[in-house]
Structure formats: structure tokens, C-alpha cells
Amino acid sequence: MTGRQPPAASSDGQLPLYEWAFDNQGQPVPIEQARRGVEYRCPLCGGRMIARQGEIKQHHYAHEEEANCPPEAVAQAAAARWIALRLQDCLARHQAVLITWPCHLCQQPHTANLLEGVVEVHEGHTWHDWTADLALLDAQGQPRAIIALAPPAPDALQAYTACSITTLSVMPDRLRGQPFDLPRLLTGATIHGGACTTQQAIARQGIVTDIQTLRTLLGTAVLHPPFYAYGLLETHAGVTNILPLGDRKLWLPPVLWQRAIGGLLHTVRPGVQVISQEWPQDDGSTIALYYITVKEASAVAVRRFAPGEPVQAQLANASLREPEAAALQIAAGFARS
Predict the structure, then answer these.
(1) Is the pTM of this model over 0.85?
(2) Alpha-carbon separation of residue 57 from 18, 61, 95, 280 (angstroms)
(3) Which residues pair with 190 in a beta bridge?
(4) Which helix (H) or strand (E) holds 120?
(5) Taking the domains of the chain in order of start, what are their residue ranges?
(6) Where does residue 287 fall: left (phi above 0), alpha (psi -120 to 50 degrees), or beta otherwise?
(7) What local confidence, expressed as pLDDT, does residue 69 receive?
(8) How far is CA 63 from CA 67, 69, 131, 203, in A?
(9) Is residue 32 helix, strand or coil?
(10) Rounded to whole angstroms, how far apart are CA atoms 290 and 208?
(11) pLDDT by position in tens, the chain (length 337)
(12) Own/partner long-range contacts of 142-150 (Cβ < 8 Å, ≥24 apart)
């Protein structure tokens, strides 16, 4: 004997108004698994819901008393509880939850365990001025990762990533019209602020990747005669964008340069771009910094201009047929101008 099948979705593709409810234990229950005689509650307002499972209309939950709960918000609240329970179960089983994202620093994909260092999963967690749908907390109660079930506010996203909190943004359309599935939800998420494993690995090798140290080393490199430094960004052990500076090596991919140094981007000719920045000093001098890119090659130039000396850069007339030589020649011209 086969079980009764629920009516198919309407021909116009309309979704059920409410697809999820909570049972008396707070467990999210999809309408397909609702049982007669069981009390259900709205995930958003907490009001009683009735499972409508007739023969003709599409199966759905309905509020027992009139309520104005947006279906998207109800689905979001149900998804937060469902994901939290699944992640808590993975923690209890010591089961890894792997996520993969393209790294903006090294331009390589990274894979990591989302639950690394996590001991608790909280719904509606408030951190500073922002409340997240889900927060994955470490033993000190600090967020290691955030899961947002709607696009996070730009200032919240900036705050999370600035504190190295991995943020996963799940698009709301993935929460409607289909059963929840953890791998599908996380695979389709937009991931911000994931740790760069390349950065971590080369830092252990003594290559400088810390923003403040990068700034300090570039600034102090020009405090003494000849008051300039320049060099081609090289590849070491398969890692690109390494600048040898004295007895140190600095990692300077374009994104990290922008974070550490900043500046304005100039396209000075086809195939040649320069990011320029100026740091006024307390003694009236100015440190000028240049990040030169010629096709696939890059170089850096730094020069200190004495108090009262105008900041100027001389663009060398370099042949672009050899990008590395051209980048180095332009950097030398900026440094020695």
C-alpha cells in the first residue's frame, strides 16, 4: 500500500505560503513531514500553525489566527534553526564541514573546516552592533564564523572580515521551494574573509605578510641614504609577489598592497598601471610609494622626498616586450627621479 502523495506545486510555479513550522520541541518540520494531531508553531511569531494537507490545494502551513509574517522571513527563521541543529550535530560527532572559496589575496581556491575551533552554534547572536542569523563561537565565546541568510549590511560585513571572522552569505531564494540540504546551502554561499592558507604558510617561513609590519618596513627602508628602494616582485617556492627588501622578504599581492598601503590607481599607458600613495611625515618630508604592473609583471618603488621637496615621478620609456624588465625599469625611474 503506497502513501498518499501531496498535490504537486501549482502550474504557475507559486510556492506554498508557509513551508516550515516548529514542533513542540522547537524542531523545524517541513510541510511534507507534518503529522495530524501535532501542534506546530510559527518560526517567526511563535503563533500556532495548522498543517493544511488536503487533496486539492498545495500542502502548506497556515496561522491559526491572523498574522502578517512574511513567508521569506518565516523560511529564514526555520533555516537558521535547521542549520544550527545540523552544525551542532556535526560538532557532537566531530565531523568536519568543509567549505571552499576563491581567495582574493593569492588568487587560489582554499578549502577549510568551517567548524575548526568552534564549540557552540548560536542563533540570533549579537556581536558589537550587529546581529547574525547564526554565529559559530569558539571557547572564548567569540565568533569564528557567521552565517547570514540574507545579504549582510556592508558595515557589518566589513567589521566581520576586519576581525578575520569568516562570513557565509546564503541567498534567500535557496531557502524556498526545496528541502534544506547543508552541502547545497553552503556550496552556494558567498564566502567573505576566509583565512588565506597561503598567507599562513609563508608567514611561518618568515616572509612578512602582516599589514602593520609591511608598512613599517617599507617606510623605514628609505629613512637613510640613498632614500629610495625598489625591486621586482619575484616568485619563491611557487608563491608570487615576493619583494626582497634588505634581509627580509615581503609578500605584496595587489589586494594586500591596497589593504596595507592604499593609493590611487593610474593607467599610464596600455598595459601599464601604477598605484601611487603618499605618506606625509612629521618632519615635513614625504614618503612616496608606487606599485607598478606591466602586463603580468609587477615591481615596487619607494622614495623619501625631503621637507619642501616636491613629490615627482619620472616615467621611464620602457619597452613592454619584456614585462619584467619594463616593470623594474619604471620602478627605478620612480625611485631615482
Answers:
(1) no
(2) 13, 12, 41, 71
(3) 169
(4) strand 120-127
(5) 20-69, 73-195, 198-336
(6) beta
(7) 94
(8) 7, 9, 27, 56
(9) helix
(10) 19
(11) 333 344 434 333 466 789 999 999 999 999 999 998 899 999 999 999 999 886 656 788 999 998 889 999 999 999 999 999 999 999 999 999 999 988 888 888 899 999 999 999 999 999 999 999 999 999 999 999 999 999 999 999 989 988 889 999 998 888 988 889 999 899 889 999 888 889 999 999 999 999 999 999 999 999 999 999 999 999 998 899 999 999 999 999 999 999 999 999 999 888 999 999 999 999 999 999 999 999 999 999 999 999 999 998 888 777 778 999 999 999 999 999 7
(12) 144/116, 144/117, 144/118, 145/114, 145/118, 147/80, 147/83, 147/189, 149/76, 149/79, 149/80, 149/175, 150/76
Give the distance between the most distant pair of CA atoms in the chain: 93
CB 136 within 8 A of CB 151: no
169-206 as b/e: b if 16+ CB within 10 A? bbeeebbbeeebeeeebbeebebbbbebebbeebeeee
Tell me the three cell numbers of residue 189. 554561499
Please choose, from the candidates 222, 294, 289, the residue with its C-alpha nearest in 3D space to the C-alpha of residue 262: 289
Got the DSSP string for 74-92?
Answer: HHHHHHHHHHHHHHHHHHH
Exposure b/e, 33-54, CB count within 10 A at least 16 = b: ebeeeeebbbbbbeeebebbbe
Q: Which three cell numbers stand for residue 108?
A: 587560489
What would the grid cell of residue 238 be? 611557487
Contact 106, 253 (CB under 8 A): yes
Q: What are phi and psi of 216, to 5 degrees?
A: -65, -45
Q: What gap in Å lies between CA 95 and CA 26, rounded to an integer?
A: 23
Q: Which three cell numbers stand for residue 130?
A: 550587529
